[in-house]
Amino acid sequence: AQTVTQSQPEMSVQEAETVTLSCTYDTSESNYYLFWYKQPPSRQMILVIRQEAYKQQNATENRFSVNFQKAAKSFSLKISDSQLGDTAMYFCAFMKHSQGAQKLVFGQGTRLTINP
Amino acid sequence: DVKVTQSSRYLVKRTGEKVFLECVQDMDHENMFWYRQDPGLGLRLIYFSYDVKMKEKGDIPEGYSVSREKKERFSLILESASTNQTSMYLCASSFWNLLFFGSGTQLSVL
C-alpha cells in the first residue's frame, strides 16, 4: 500500500516570502502521479500542481513549483512571492497509474498561514 | 466547469440515526469517490464507484455503505450513526487522473 507523509502540520511566513512544503511517499510502483491540492477556508479542494513520475522535469505553475526527487521519494512544493490568498491547508497526494478508478492517497496536510 | 454538488454543507444527526449524504456530478464521469477528512489524518477513502451499481471498499469502509443507482449520483449511507463518524465528508468524481471535489459536508453526530 502507498503512504504519503507531510511532516509539517503548520507553517507560517510573511507575505512575499518563499515557502517550501515537504512531502514524502512510499510506493513500490514505478509509474504514478503526484499532486498538491489546496483547501482554503471555503473547503473547496483546488488542484495546485501535478507531476507525472516518468517526467524528470519538475512541474511549474506560475508561482508554484515542485522539487520531485524520485529516488528519494520526495515531492516538495515551493510557493514563491507568497500572497495572503495562499493561506490554506495543503495536501500532497499520490495516485497509482492503473486501469479503472484512479484513487488518490493523501498526506496529513500542512496548514499554511501567510501573514501581512 | 465540472460541478460536484453535495446536498448539505452542515448536518447534525443523533446517534443511531440513518444518515444519507448525497453527491451529484454533472460531467458524466464514471468514477466517484467518498472521502472523510479529519485533522491530522488528511483525507481517507471510504468507498468508490467505477460505474453504475458498481462499488469498491476504500481504506475505511466500516460503518458505511454506498449506493449508485444513476451515473451522476453517489450516496454515502451511515446505517447507524455514531459519534466517531463526526467528520467532514468530501465527494469527488474523476476523469482520467483528475479528481473534482465537492465543497464537503460537515457532519456532527451527537
Report on this model:
The complex is a heterodimer of chains A (116) and B (110). Chain A has 116 residues and is mainly β. Chain A has strands at residues 3-5, 10-14, 19-21, 24-26, 32-39, 46-52, 60-61, 64-69, 74-79, 88-96, 104-106, 110-115. In chain A, the strands form 3 sheets. In chain A, strands 2, 5, 6, 10, 11 and 12 form a 6-stranded mixed β-sheet that branches. In chain A, a hairpin with a 6-residue loop joins strand 5 (32-39) and strand 6. Chain B has 110 residues and is an all-beta fold. Chain B is built from no helices and 11 strands. Chain B has strands at 4-6, 10-13, 19-25, 31-38, 42-51, 54-57, 64-70, 73-78, 87-95, 98-101, 105-109. In chain B, the strands form 2 sheets. In chain B, strands 2, 4, 5, 6, 9, 10 and 11 form a 7-stranded mixed β-sheet that branches. In chain B, strands 1-3-8-7 form a 4-stranded antiparallel β-sheet, with no helix packed on it. The radius of gyration of chain B is 13 Å and the shape is globular. Chain B starts with a strand and ends with a strand. The model of chain B has no long low-confidence stretch (mean pLDDT 95). Chains A and B meet through strand 11 of A and strand 4, strand 5, strand 9 and strand 10 of B.
Number of strands of chain B: 11
Number of helices of chain B: 0
The profile of the biggest β sheet of chain A is: 6 strands, mixed
**Strand percentage of chain A:** over 45%
Rg estimate of chain A, integer Å: 14 Å
Helix count of chain A, per DSSP?
A: 0
Biggest pleated-sheet summary of chain B: 7 strands, mixed
Largest interface: A-B, 23 and 26 residues
- Name the overall outline of chain B: globular
Order of helices and strands of chain A: EEEEEEEEEEEE
Radius of gyration of chain B: 13 Å
How much helix, percentage-wise, in residues of chain A? under 10%
* Mean pLDDT over all positions of chain B: 95
